[in-house]
Amino acid sequence: MRQLRAVAEYRADIYARSAIVDPYPHYLRLRHLGSPVWAINNIIHRHNRLPLKLIAA
């Protein structure tokens, strides 16, 4: 049986006006989650410390 693993998730609205005007608090929170990478035409989200997570395109 496969074990469930935690996947880093950031639910804040990074497209909100306040986030666009001042993105640095969001950058800081994302860095605390680890090193995020967006790859393969935004289909796969990779987090260095956690497994791959497929997302809807």
Question: What does this molecule look like?
Answer:
The mean pLDDT is 71. The protein is elongated. Helices cover 26% and strands 23% of the residues. The protein has one domain (1-57). A hairpin with a 2-residue loop joins strand 2 and strand 3 (50-54). It has a three-stranded antiparallel sheet. It starts with 16 loop residues before the first helix and ends with a strand. With 57 residues, the chain is an alpha+beta fold. The chain has helices at 17-21, 24-33; strands at residues 36-39, 44-47, 50-54.
Compact summary:
It contains two helices and three strands. With 57 residues, the protein is α+β, with helices and mostly antiparallel strands.
Please specify the SSE layout and strand pairing.
Blueprint: H1 17-21, H2 24-33, E1 36-39, E2 44-47, E3 50-54
Antiparallel strand pairs: 1-2, 2-3
Keywords:
57 residues; alpha+beta
